[in-house]
From TrEMBL:
PROSITE patterns: SULFATASE_1, SULFATASE_2. The gene is Arsi. The lineage of its organism: Eukaryota, Metazoa, Chordata, Craniata, Vertebrata. Keywords: Calcium, Glycoprotein, Hydrolase, Metal-binding. The keyword Phosphoprotein does not apply. Residues 50-361 form the Sulfatase N-terminal domain. This is ARSI Arylsulfatase. Its cofactor is Ca(2+). It comes from the Eukaryota. It comes from Burhinus bistriatus. Belongs to the sulfatase family. Pfam families: Sulfatase. One of its GO terms (molecular function) is metal ion binding.
Amino acid sequence: MAVYALTGFSLVSLLSFGYLSWDWMKPSLVADVATDPMEKSLPPAFARPPHIIFILTDDQGYHDVGYHGSDIQTPTLDRLAAEGVKLENYYIQPICTPSRSQLITGRYQIHTGLQHSIIRPRQPNCLPLDQVTLPQKLQEAGYSTHMVGKWHLGFYKKECLPTRRGFDTFLGSLTGNVDYYTYDNCDGPGVCGYDLHEGEDVAWDQSGKYSTFLYAQRVSKILASHSPKEPIFIYVAFQAVHTPLQSPKEYIYRYRSMGNVARRKYAAMVTCMDEAVKNITWALKKYGYYDNSVIVFSTDNGGQTFSGGSNWPLRGRKGTYWEGGVRGIGFVHSPLIKHKRRTSWALVHITDWYPTLVSLARGNLSNVPGLDGYNVWPAISEGKESPRTEILHNIDPLYNHAKYGSLQDGFGIWNTAVQASIRVGEWKLLTGDPGYSDWIPPQTLTNFPGSWWNLERLTDGLRKSVWLFNITADPYERYDLSDQRPDVVRTLLMRLVHYNQTAIPVRYPAENPRAHPDFNGGAWGPWASEDDVEEWEGIREPLKSRNKKKKCKICKLRSFFRKLNTRLMSNRI
Protein backbone atom coordinates (compact mmCIF):
# COMPACT_ATOMS: atom_id res chain seq x y z
CA MET A 1 0.00 0.00 0.00
CA ALA A 2 1.31 3.43 -0.95
CA VAL A 3 2.61 5.62 1.84
CA TYR A 4 2.17 9.37 1.49
CA ALA A 5 4.23 11.97 3.31
CA LEU A 6 3.18 15.58 3.65
CA THR A 7 6.16 17.88 3.70
CA GLY A 8 6.21 21.58 4.55
CA PHE A 9 2.59 22.07 3.59
CA SER A 10 -0.63 22.94 5.36
CA LEU A 11 -4.24 23.28 4.29
CA VAL A 12 -4.24 26.78 5.75
CA SER A 13 -1.68 27.92 3.17
CA LEU A 14 -3.97 26.83 0.35
CA LEU A 15 -7.10 28.41 1.84
CA SER A 16 -5.29 31.67 2.40
CA PHE A 17 -5.06 32.51 -1.30
CA GLY A 18 -6.85 35.72 -2.16
CA TYR A 19 -7.16 37.93 -5.22
CA LEU A 20 -5.12 41.08 -5.37
CA SER A 21 -7.22 44.22 -5.53
CA TRP A 22 -6.73 45.86 -8.91
CA ASP A 23 -9.27 46.95 -11.49
CA TRP A 24 -9.13 44.79 -14.60
CA MET A 25 -11.38 47.27 -16.42
CA LYS A 26 -8.66 49.95 -16.35
CA PRO A 27 -7.00 50.64 -19.73
CA SER A 28 -4.49 47.95 -20.56
CA LEU A 29 -0.77 48.55 -20.56
CA VAL A 30 -0.53 46.52 -23.75
CA ALA A 31 -2.55 48.93 -25.90
CA ASP A 32 -5.00 51.79 -25.59
CA VAL A 33 -8.57 50.80 -26.47
CA ALA A 34 -11.52 52.91 -25.45
CA THR A 35 -14.40 50.47 -25.17
CA ASP A 36 -15.05 46.94 -23.98
CA PRO A 37 -16.25 44.80 -26.92
CA MET A 38 -17.77 42.12 -24.73
CA GLU A 39 -20.52 44.32 -23.30
CA LYS A 40 -23.15 44.28 -26.05
CA SER A 41 -22.76 41.60 -28.70
CA LEU A 42 -25.68 39.88 -30.33
CA PRO A 43 -25.26 36.25 -31.37
CA PRO A 44 -25.52 36.21 -35.19
CA ALA A 45 -26.77 33.45 -37.43
CA PHE A 46 -24.03 31.01 -38.32
CA ALA A 47 -24.33 32.14 -41.92
CA ARG A 48 -20.72 32.22 -43.11
CA PRO A 49 -17.37 30.70 -42.13
CA PRO A 50 -16.27 32.18 -38.80
CA HIS A 51 -13.10 34.07 -38.04
CA ILE A 52 -10.87 31.79 -35.98
CA ILE A 53 -8.43 33.00 -33.34
CA PHE A 54 -6.39 30.21 -31.72
CA ILE A 55 -4.43 31.33 -28.65
CA LEU A 56 -1.75 28.99 -27.30
CA THR A 57 0.19 29.81 -24.14
CA ASP A 58 3.53 28.26 -23.21
CA ASP A 59 4.15 26.41 -19.91
CA GLN A 60 1.07 27.82 -18.16
CA GLY A 61 0.20 25.47 -15.29
CA TYR A 62 -3.22 23.91 -14.80
CA HIS A 63 -3.68 25.83 -11.54
CA ASP A 64 -2.51 29.13 -13.02
CA VAL A 65 -5.79 30.64 -14.15
CA GLY A 66 -8.26 32.44 -11.91
CA TYR A 67 -11.18 30.09 -12.47
CA HIS A 68 -9.07 27.17 -11.24
CA GLY A 69 -8.62 28.91 -7.89
CA SER A 70 -5.27 30.52 -8.58
CA ASP A 71 -3.70 33.40 -6.69
CA ILE A 72 -2.76 34.82 -10.10
CA GLN A 73 -5.11 37.40 -11.60
CA THR A 74 -6.50 36.42 -15.04
CA PRO A 75 -9.75 38.42 -15.28
CA THR A 76 -9.92 38.32 -19.07
CA LEU A 77 -9.46 34.57 -19.32
CA ASP A 78 -11.94 34.08 -16.48
CA ARG A 79 -14.57 36.17 -18.20
CA LEU A 80 -14.08 34.69 -21.67
CA ALA A 81 -14.25 31.17 -20.24
CA ALA A 82 -17.30 31.96 -18.09
CA GLU A 83 -19.19 33.33 -21.10
CA GLY A 84 -18.14 30.44 -23.31
CA VAL A 85 -17.48 26.75 -22.65
CA LYS A 86 -14.79 25.58 -20.22
CA LEU A 87 -13.13 22.34 -21.26
CA GLU A 88 -12.35 20.45 -18.07
CA ASN A 89 -11.50 17.11 -19.68
CA TYR A 90 -9.01 18.59 -22.14
CA TYR A 91 -5.62 17.06 -22.93
CA ILE A 92 -2.42 18.33 -24.48
CA GLN A 93 1.13 16.95 -24.66
CA PRO A 94 3.77 17.26 -21.93
CA ILE A 95 6.26 19.40 -23.92
CA CYS A 96 6.34 22.07 -26.63
CA THR A 97 7.00 20.52 -30.05
CA PRO A 98 4.63 17.55 -29.61
CA SER A 99 1.64 19.74 -28.73
CA ARG A 100 2.31 22.12 -31.61
CA SER A 101 2.82 19.34 -34.12
CA GLN A 102 -0.42 17.63 -33.10
CA LEU A 103 -2.35 20.90 -33.29
CA ILE A 104 -1.02 21.67 -36.77
CA THR A 105 -1.41 18.13 -38.21
CA GLY A 106 -4.28 16.55 -36.25
CA ARG A 107 -2.08 13.47 -35.77
CA TYR A 108 -0.40 11.76 -32.84
CA GLN A 109 3.38 12.08 -32.52
CA ILE A 110 3.85 8.44 -33.48
CA HIS A 111 2.36 9.27 -36.89
CA THR A 112 4.75 12.15 -37.63
CA GLY A 113 7.99 10.70 -36.25
CA LEU A 114 8.17 13.38 -33.55
CA GLN A 115 7.48 11.08 -30.61
CA HIS A 116 10.78 11.82 -28.86
CA SER A 117 11.63 15.08 -27.11
CA ILE A 118 11.51 18.42 -28.98
CA ILE A 119 13.05 19.71 -32.19
CA ARG A 120 16.31 21.32 -31.13
CA PRO A 121 17.78 24.39 -32.87
CA ARG A 122 20.74 22.57 -34.44
CA GLN A 123 18.87 19.49 -35.62
CA PRO A 124 18.14 19.01 -39.34
CA ASN A 125 14.54 18.20 -38.50
CA CYS A 126 11.10 19.75 -38.86
CA LEU A 127 7.42 18.94 -39.15
CA PRO A 128 7.31 16.36 -41.99
CA LEU A 129 6.73 18.11 -45.30
CA ASP A 130 4.25 15.48 -46.47
CA GLN A 131 1.79 16.56 -43.77
CA VAL A 132 -1.04 18.85 -44.89
CA THR A 133 -1.24 21.44 -42.14
CA LEU A 134 -4.23 23.12 -40.51
CA PRO A 135 -3.48 26.54 -42.05
CA GLN A 136 -3.09 24.94 -45.48
CA LYS A 137 -6.56 23.41 -45.17
CA LEU A 138 -7.95 26.77 -44.08
CA GLN A 139 -6.27 28.47 -47.04
CA GLU A 140 -8.03 25.97 -49.30
CA ALA A 141 -11.30 27.04 -47.67
CA GLY A 142 -10.65 30.69 -48.55
CA TYR A 143 -9.10 31.90 -45.31
CA SER A 144 -6.36 34.44 -44.84
CA THR A 145 -3.91 32.78 -42.42
CA HIS A 146 -1.49 34.44 -40.03
CA MET A 147 0.84 33.27 -37.30
CA VAL A 148 2.22 35.35 -34.45
CA GLY A 149 4.59 33.88 -31.84
CA LYS A 150 6.55 30.71 -31.24
CA TRP A 151 6.91 28.14 -34.06
CA HIS A 152 9.19 25.40 -32.63
CA LEU A 153 8.47 22.96 -35.46
CA GLY A 154 11.85 23.12 -37.17
CA PHE A 155 13.54 25.51 -39.58
CA TYR A 156 16.72 23.87 -40.92
CA LYS A 157 15.59 24.52 -44.50
CA LYS A 158 13.23 27.14 -45.91
CA GLU A 159 10.54 24.60 -46.74
CA CYS A 160 10.06 24.12 -42.98
CA LEU A 161 9.22 27.75 -42.22
CA PRO A 162 5.70 28.85 -41.20
CA THR A 163 5.28 30.80 -44.45
CA ARG A 164 5.93 27.57 -46.39
CA ARG A 165 3.54 25.53 -44.21
CA GLY A 166 0.35 27.47 -44.78
CA PHE A 167 0.69 30.88 -43.16
CA ASP A 168 0.42 34.02 -45.28
CA THR A 169 2.36 36.02 -42.70
CA PHE A 170 4.54 35.24 -39.70
CA LEU A 171 6.07 37.28 -36.90
CA GLY A 172 7.77 35.31 -34.16
CA SER A 173 10.57 33.00 -33.08
CA LEU A 174 11.60 29.72 -34.66
CA THR A 175 13.30 28.10 -31.66
CA GLY A 176 11.92 27.00 -28.29
CA ASN A 177 12.70 29.94 -26.01
CA VAL A 178 14.20 33.39 -26.40
CA ASP A 179 14.84 36.47 -24.31
CA TYR A 180 11.58 38.45 -24.13
CA TYR A 181 13.35 41.70 -25.03
CA THR A 182 16.54 40.93 -26.97
CA TYR A 183 15.25 37.72 -28.67
CA ASP A 184 18.59 36.01 -28.08
CA ASN A 185 18.61 32.24 -27.67
CA CYS A 186 21.60 30.15 -26.60
CA ASP A 187 21.67 26.43 -27.37
CA GLY A 188 24.86 25.72 -25.46
CA PRO A 189 28.07 27.54 -24.54
CA GLY A 190 28.84 30.07 -27.25
CA VAL A 191 26.03 28.86 -29.53
CA CYS A 192 23.89 31.98 -29.38
CA GLY A 193 21.84 33.85 -31.92
CA TYR A 194 19.02 36.26 -32.53
CA ASP A 195 15.58 34.74 -33.11
CA LEU A 196 12.79 37.06 -34.19
CA HIS A 197 11.56 36.77 -37.75
CA GLU A 198 9.20 38.71 -39.98
CA GLY A 199 8.12 36.33 -42.71
CA GLU A 200 11.37 34.71 -43.82
CA ASP A 201 13.58 37.64 -42.84
CA VAL A 202 15.28 38.43 -39.55
CA ALA A 203 13.40 41.20 -37.70
CA TRP A 204 16.40 43.00 -36.25
CA ASP A 205 14.44 46.25 -35.90
CA GLN A 206 12.01 44.77 -33.35
CA SER A 207 14.65 44.06 -30.72
CA GLY A 208 13.90 45.64 -27.35
CA LYS A 209 10.12 45.21 -27.51
CA TYR A 210 8.58 42.87 -24.94
CA SER A 211 7.28 39.92 -26.92
CA THR A 212 3.84 39.69 -25.28
CA PHE A 213 3.20 43.34 -26.15
CA LEU A 214 4.66 42.95 -29.62
CA TYR A 215 2.55 39.92 -30.49
CA ALA A 216 -0.72 41.43 -29.25
CA GLN A 217 -0.06 44.61 -31.20
CA ARG A 218 0.67 42.60 -34.34
CA VAL A 219 -2.66 40.76 -34.06
CA SER A 220 -4.45 44.11 -33.77
CA LYS A 221 -2.59 45.39 -36.83
CA ILE A 222 -3.56 42.31 -38.85
CA LEU A 223 -7.22 42.74 -37.93
CA ALA A 224 -7.13 46.45 -38.76
CA SER A 225 -5.76 45.80 -42.24
CA HIS A 226 -8.09 42.90 -43.12
CA SER A 227 -11.77 42.97 -44.08
CA PRO A 228 -14.15 41.29 -41.60
CA LYS A 229 -16.19 40.21 -44.62
CA GLU A 230 -13.43 37.73 -45.48
CA PRO A 231 -12.62 34.82 -43.14
CA ILE A 232 -9.36 34.98 -41.23
CA PHE A 233 -7.38 32.53 -39.10
CA ILE A 234 -4.84 33.87 -36.62
CA TYR A 235 -2.67 31.48 -34.64
CA VAL A 236 -1.32 33.36 -31.61
CA ALA A 237 1.38 31.25 -29.95
CA PHE A 238 2.55 33.38 -27.06
CA GLN A 239 6.07 32.88 -25.78
CA ALA A 240 4.60 33.56 -22.35
CA VAL A 241 4.94 32.13 -19.81
CA HIS A 242 8.00 30.05 -20.70
CA THR A 243 11.34 30.90 -19.12
CA PRO A 244 13.23 33.20 -18.89
CA LEU A 245 11.06 34.79 -16.22
CA GLN A 246 10.84 38.35 -17.53
CA SER A 247 8.08 40.90 -17.16
CA PRO A 248 7.68 44.69 -17.12
CA LYS A 249 8.15 46.02 -13.61
CA GLU A 250 4.62 47.39 -13.31
CA TYR A 251 3.23 43.84 -13.51
CA ILE A 252 5.70 42.47 -10.97
CA TYR A 253 4.75 45.24 -8.56
CA ARG A 254 1.18 43.93 -8.42
CA TYR A 255 2.51 40.72 -6.89
CA ARG A 256 4.99 42.30 -4.49
CA SER A 257 3.35 40.48 -1.55
CA MET A 258 4.36 37.08 -2.98
CA GLY A 259 7.30 35.76 -1.02
CA ASN A 260 8.58 33.41 -3.71
CA VAL A 261 10.49 35.40 -6.32
CA ALA A 262 10.02 32.91 -9.16
CA ARG A 263 6.29 32.71 -8.51
CA ARG A 264 6.07 36.50 -8.37
CA LYS A 265 7.73 36.95 -11.77
CA TYR A 266 5.76 34.10 -13.25
CA ALA A 267 2.48 35.56 -11.97
CA ALA A 268 3.35 38.92 -13.52
CA MET A 269 3.94 37.23 -16.89
CA VAL A 270 0.60 35.41 -16.72
CA THR A 271 -1.27 38.64 -15.94
CA CYS A 272 0.54 40.48 -18.73
CA MET A 273 -0.50 37.73 -21.15
CA ASP A 274 -4.08 37.98 -19.85
CA GLU A 275 -4.15 41.67 -20.72
CA ALA A 276 -2.79 40.88 -24.18
CA VAL A 277 -5.71 38.50 -24.70
CA LYS A 278 -8.07 41.27 -23.57
CA ASN A 279 -6.69 43.60 -26.22
CA ILE A 280 -6.95 40.96 -28.92
CA THR A 281 -10.60 40.48 -27.98
CA TRP A 282 -11.18 44.24 -28.03
CA ALA A 283 -9.60 44.44 -31.49
CA LEU A 284 -11.95 41.73 -32.76
CA LYS A 285 -14.90 43.90 -31.67
CA LYS A 286 -13.43 47.21 -32.75
CA TYR A 287 -12.79 46.06 -36.31
CA GLY A 288 -16.02 44.12 -36.74
CA TYR A 289 -14.94 40.48 -36.36
CA TYR A 290 -16.26 39.49 -32.96
CA ASP A 291 -19.87 38.56 -33.78
CA ASN A 292 -18.71 35.94 -36.26
CA SER A 293 -15.63 34.71 -34.41
CA VAL A 294 -14.48 31.63 -32.54
CA ILE A 295 -11.75 32.10 -29.93
CA VAL A 296 -9.99 28.95 -28.76
CA PHE A 297 -7.67 29.16 -25.77
CA SER A 298 -5.24 26.36 -24.92
CA THR A 299 -2.07 25.74 -22.98
CA ASP A 300 0.67 23.69 -24.66
CA ASN A 301 1.73 21.54 -21.68
CA GLY A 302 1.76 21.49 -17.90
CA GLY A 303 3.48 24.16 -15.85
CA GLN A 304 7.15 23.94 -14.91
CA THR A 305 7.15 23.92 -11.11
CA PHE A 306 10.87 24.80 -10.99
CA SER A 307 10.00 28.13 -12.62
CA GLY A 308 6.99 29.32 -10.65
CA GLY A 309 4.27 27.28 -12.36
CA SER A 310 1.67 25.19 -10.55
CA ASN A 311 -0.46 22.26 -11.66
CA TRP A 312 -2.06 21.69 -8.26
CA PRO A 313 -3.95 19.57 -7.37
CA LEU A 314 -2.78 17.41 -10.27
CA ARG A 315 0.20 15.11 -10.04
CA GLY A 316 3.44 15.84 -11.90
CA ARG A 317 4.64 18.73 -14.03
CA LYS A 318 5.76 19.70 -17.52
CA GLY A 319 7.61 16.89 -19.27
CA THR A 320 5.71 14.10 -17.50
CA TYR A 321 2.75 11.92 -18.46
CA TRP A 322 1.03 12.45 -15.12
CA GLU A 323 -2.09 14.62 -15.31
CA GLY A 324 -0.06 17.68 -14.31
CA GLY A 325 1.89 17.34 -17.53
CA VAL A 326 -0.89 16.54 -19.98
CA ARG A 327 -4.17 17.98 -18.69
CA GLY A 328 -4.49 21.49 -20.04
CA ILE A 329 -6.37 24.71 -19.54
CA GLY A 330 -8.81 25.06 -22.42
CA PHE A 331 -11.95 26.94 -23.33
CA VAL A 332 -13.88 28.19 -26.34
CA HIS A 333 -15.49 31.63 -26.46
CA SER A 334 -17.83 32.51 -29.32
CA PRO A 335 -21.20 34.13 -30.01
CA LEU A 336 -21.77 31.13 -32.30
CA ILE A 337 -21.91 28.60 -29.44
CA LYS A 338 -25.47 27.35 -28.93
CA HIS A 339 -25.19 26.49 -25.24
CA LYS A 340 -22.88 28.99 -23.56
CA ARG A 341 -21.84 29.68 -19.98
CA ARG A 342 -21.19 26.10 -19.00
CA THR A 343 -18.47 23.59 -18.20
CA SER A 344 -17.94 20.67 -20.56
CA TRP A 345 -16.55 17.33 -19.41
CA ALA A 346 -16.42 15.98 -22.97
CA LEU A 347 -13.10 14.27 -23.70
CA VAL A 348 -11.09 16.57 -25.99
CA HIS A 349 -7.49 16.33 -27.21
CA ILE A 350 -5.32 18.89 -28.96
CA THR A 351 -5.44 16.84 -32.19
CA ASP A 352 -9.19 17.50 -32.31
CA TRP A 353 -8.78 21.16 -33.24
CA TYR A 354 -7.64 20.28 -36.78
CA PRO A 355 -10.86 18.55 -37.94
CA THR A 356 -13.01 20.78 -35.72
CA LEU A 357 -11.73 24.05 -37.14
CA VAL A 358 -11.58 22.82 -40.74
CA SER A 359 -15.19 21.67 -40.40
CA LEU A 360 -16.21 25.06 -38.98
CA ALA A 361 -14.49 26.66 -41.98
CA ARG A 362 -16.47 24.39 -44.28
CA GLY A 363 -13.24 22.92 -45.55
CA ASN A 364 -12.63 19.52 -47.11
CA LEU A 365 -11.26 16.74 -44.89
CA SER A 366 -11.70 13.93 -47.41
CA ASN A 367 -8.16 14.31 -48.76
CA VAL A 368 -6.50 14.03 -45.33
CA PRO A 369 -7.34 10.48 -44.25
CA GLY A 370 -6.02 8.92 -41.07
CA LEU A 371 -6.40 11.91 -38.76
CA ASP A 372 -6.23 11.09 -35.06
CA GLY A 373 -8.45 14.05 -34.17
CA TYR A 374 -12.25 14.30 -34.13
CA ASN A 375 -14.70 17.08 -34.87
CA VAL A 376 -15.77 18.03 -31.34
CA TRP A 377 -17.77 21.16 -32.20
CA PRO A 378 -21.16 19.50 -31.49
CA ALA A 379 -19.83 18.48 -28.07
CA ILE A 380 -18.59 22.01 -27.39
CA SER A 381 -21.47 24.02 -28.85
CA GLU A 382 -24.47 21.79 -28.18
CA GLY A 383 -23.32 19.67 -25.26
CA LYS A 384 -23.44 16.45 -27.23
CA GLU A 385 -21.31 13.45 -26.35
CA SER A 386 -17.71 13.61 -27.52
CA PRO A 387 -16.84 11.25 -30.36
CA ARG A 388 -13.50 10.66 -28.64
CA THR A 389 -13.26 7.73 -26.23
CA GLU A 390 -9.50 7.31 -25.90
CA ILE A 391 -6.24 9.25 -26.12
CA LEU A 392 -2.77 7.96 -26.90
CA HIS A 393 -0.62 10.26 -24.79
CA ASN A 394 2.50 8.87 -26.46
CA ILE A 395 4.88 5.98 -27.05
CA ASP A 396 8.53 7.05 -26.88
CA PRO A 397 10.93 4.19 -27.69
CA LEU A 398 14.02 6.40 -27.26
CA TYR A 399 13.33 7.72 -23.77
CA ASN A 400 15.49 6.11 -21.08
CA HIS A 401 13.99 2.71 -20.33
CA ALA A 402 12.72 2.09 -16.82
CA LYS A 403 15.13 0.00 -14.80
CA TYR A 404 12.48 -2.36 -13.46
CA GLY A 405 10.33 -2.76 -16.58
CA SER A 406 10.18 -5.95 -18.63
CA LEU A 407 8.22 -7.86 -21.24
CA GLN A 408 7.17 -10.28 -18.51
CA ASP A 409 5.56 -7.44 -16.53
CA GLY A 410 3.63 -6.60 -19.68
CA PHE A 411 2.00 -10.04 -19.98
CA GLY A 412 4.46 -10.92 -22.74
CA ILE A 413 2.86 -8.43 -25.13
CA TRP A 414 4.48 -5.13 -24.09
CA ASN A 415 7.84 -4.15 -22.63
CA THR A 416 6.88 -2.06 -19.62
CA ALA A 417 10.33 -0.45 -19.59
CA VAL A 418 9.21 1.67 -22.58
CA GLN A 419 7.77 5.08 -21.73
CA ALA A 420 4.14 5.12 -22.86
CA SER A 421 0.75 6.32 -21.70
CA ILE A 422 -2.81 5.86 -22.89
CA ARG A 423 -6.31 6.69 -21.71
CA VAL A 424 -9.28 4.53 -22.68
CA GLY A 425 -12.63 5.59 -21.30
CA GLU A 426 -12.16 6.30 -17.61
CA TRP A 427 -8.91 4.30 -17.37
CA LYS A 428 -5.37 5.62 -17.74
CA LEU A 429 -2.27 3.45 -18.04
CA LEU A 430 1.37 4.49 -17.76
CA THR A 431 4.44 2.34 -18.43
CA GLY A 432 8.17 2.93 -18.20
CA ASP A 433 9.31 6.15 -16.53
CA PRO A 434 6.40 8.64 -16.61
CA GLY A 435 8.54 11.42 -15.11
CA TYR A 436 8.60 13.34 -11.82
CA SER A 437 5.58 12.19 -9.85
CA ASP A 438 5.03 14.45 -6.83
CA TRP A 439 2.05 16.64 -6.01
CA ILE A 440 3.29 20.22 -5.64
CA PRO A 441 0.97 22.83 -4.10
CA PRO A 442 1.44 26.46 -5.21
CA GLN A 443 4.76 27.95 -4.18
CA THR A 444 3.85 30.49 -1.53
CA LEU A 445 6.89 30.52 0.74
CA THR A 446 10.11 32.46 0.36
CA ASN A 447 13.08 30.13 0.69
CA PHE A 448 14.48 28.00 -2.11
CA PRO A 449 14.82 25.09 -2.23
CA GLY A 450 13.85 24.29 1.38
CA SER A 451 10.43 25.56 2.36
CA TRP A 452 9.66 26.42 -1.28
CA TRP A 453 9.08 22.74 -1.83
CA ASN A 454 5.62 22.35 -0.37
CA LEU A 455 5.12 18.91 -1.78
CA GLU A 456 3.31 15.72 -1.04
CA ARG A 457 5.51 12.84 -1.97
CA LEU A 458 4.78 9.24 -2.82
CA THR A 459 7.45 7.32 -0.96
CA ASP A 460 7.07 3.91 -2.53
CA GLY A 461 6.48 2.75 -6.11
CA LEU A 462 10.07 3.48 -7.13
CA ARG A 463 10.48 -0.06 -8.45
CA LYS A 464 7.34 0.03 -10.56
CA SER A 465 6.94 0.24 -14.31
CA VAL A 466 3.15 -0.01 -14.64
CA TRP A 467 0.45 2.27 -13.18
CA LEU A 468 -3.31 2.17 -13.66
CA PHE A 469 -5.79 4.83 -12.56
CA ASN A 470 -9.50 5.37 -12.85
CA ILE A 471 -8.95 8.93 -13.96
CA THR A 472 -12.62 9.89 -13.68
CA ALA A 473 -12.91 8.83 -10.05
CA ASP A 474 -9.29 9.66 -9.21
CA PRO A 475 -8.16 12.64 -11.34
CA TYR A 476 -5.23 13.30 -8.99
CA GLU A 477 -3.74 9.82 -9.58
CA ARG A 478 -3.44 8.84 -5.93
CA TYR A 479 -4.69 5.26 -6.10
CA ASP A 480 -2.80 2.89 -8.38
CA LEU A 481 -5.10 -0.01 -9.32
CA SER A 482 -2.69 -1.97 -11.51
CA ASP A 483 -2.46 -4.86 -9.02
CA GLN A 484 -6.22 -4.99 -8.42
CA ARG A 485 -7.23 -4.81 -12.09
CA PRO A 486 -4.76 -6.80 -14.22
CA ASP A 487 -7.57 -7.38 -16.73
CA VAL A 488 -7.78 -3.65 -17.43
CA VAL A 489 -3.99 -3.38 -17.58
CA ARG A 490 -3.85 -6.10 -20.20
CA THR A 491 -6.63 -4.49 -22.26
CA LEU A 492 -4.86 -1.13 -22.32
CA LEU A 493 -1.52 -2.76 -23.11
CA MET A 494 -3.18 -4.32 -26.14
CA ARG A 495 -4.22 -0.83 -27.24
CA LEU A 496 -0.61 0.31 -26.93
CA VAL A 497 0.44 -2.65 -29.07
CA HIS A 498 -2.16 -1.64 -31.65
CA TYR A 499 -0.96 1.95 -31.81
CA ASN A 500 2.68 0.94 -31.88
CA GLN A 501 2.03 -1.12 -35.00
CA THR A 502 0.94 2.08 -36.76
CA ALA A 503 3.94 4.17 -35.61
CA ILE A 504 6.53 5.46 -38.07
CA PRO A 505 10.26 5.59 -37.20
CA VAL A 506 11.43 8.31 -34.83
CA ARG A 507 12.92 11.39 -36.47
CA TYR A 508 15.63 12.62 -34.12
CA PRO A 509 18.80 13.43 -36.10
CA ALA A 510 22.12 14.46 -34.60
CA GLU A 511 22.85 18.15 -34.22
CA ASN A 512 24.87 19.73 -37.02
CA PRO A 513 27.53 22.41 -36.41
CA ARG A 514 26.53 24.24 -39.60
CA ALA A 515 23.39 25.44 -37.81
CA HIS A 516 25.50 27.77 -35.63
CA PRO A 517 24.11 31.33 -35.85
CA ASP A 518 27.62 32.67 -36.50
CA PHE A 519 27.36 31.07 -39.96
CA ASN A 520 24.02 32.78 -40.53
CA GLY A 521 24.75 36.41 -39.76
CA GLY A 522 24.25 36.01 -36.02
CA ALA A 523 20.66 34.75 -36.23
CA TRP A 524 18.94 31.39 -36.05
CA GLY A 525 17.47 30.43 -39.40
CA PRO A 526 17.53 27.94 -42.31
CA TRP A 527 21.01 26.65 -42.99
CA ALA A 528 20.88 23.31 -44.85
CA SER A 529 21.34 22.96 -48.59
CA GLU A 530 19.25 20.61 -50.69
CA ASP A 531 22.22 18.28 -51.13
CA ASP A 532 22.43 17.78 -47.37
CA VAL A 533 18.84 16.75 -46.77
CA GLU A 534 18.90 13.09 -47.82
CA GLU A 535 22.05 12.46 -45.83
CA TRP A 536 20.68 13.85 -42.56
CA GLU A 537 16.98 13.10 -42.53
CA GLY A 538 15.94 10.07 -40.57
CA ILE A 539 19.20 9.81 -38.63
CA ARG A 540 18.69 9.71 -34.89
CA GLU A 541 21.18 10.79 -32.30
CA PRO A 542 22.37 8.13 -29.82
CA LEU A 543 21.10 8.86 -26.34
CA LYS A 544 24.56 8.74 -24.78
CA SER A 545 25.96 11.36 -27.16
CA ARG A 546 23.62 14.14 -26.07
CA ASN A 547 25.32 16.79 -24.02
CA LYS A 548 23.49 18.62 -21.28
CA LYS A 549 22.59 22.16 -22.21
CA LYS A 550 24.69 24.60 -20.20
CA LYS A 551 23.94 28.15 -19.29
CA CYS A 552 25.21 30.43 -22.00
CA LYS A 553 27.15 33.44 -20.74
CA ILE A 554 27.94 34.88 -24.17
CA CYS A 555 24.23 35.70 -24.65
CA LYS A 556 24.45 38.25 -21.86
CA LEU A 557 27.52 39.85 -23.43
CA ARG A 558 25.91 39.92 -26.86
CA SER A 559 22.78 41.48 -25.37
CA PHE A 560 24.88 44.09 -23.56
CA PHE A 561 26.72 45.16 -26.72
CA ARG A 562 23.51 45.26 -28.74
CA LYS A 563 21.88 47.54 -26.14
CA LEU A 564 25.02 49.70 -26.02
CA ASN A 565 25.05 50.01 -29.81
CA THR A 566 21.35 50.95 -29.83
CA ARG A 567 21.96 53.62 -27.22
CA LEU A 568 24.91 55.07 -29.15
CA MET A 569 22.88 55.14 -32.35
CA SER A 570 19.98 56.89 -30.64
CA ASN A 571 22.37 59.52 -29.28
CA ARG A 572 23.65 60.18 -32.82
CA ILE A 573 20.10 60.63 -34.08
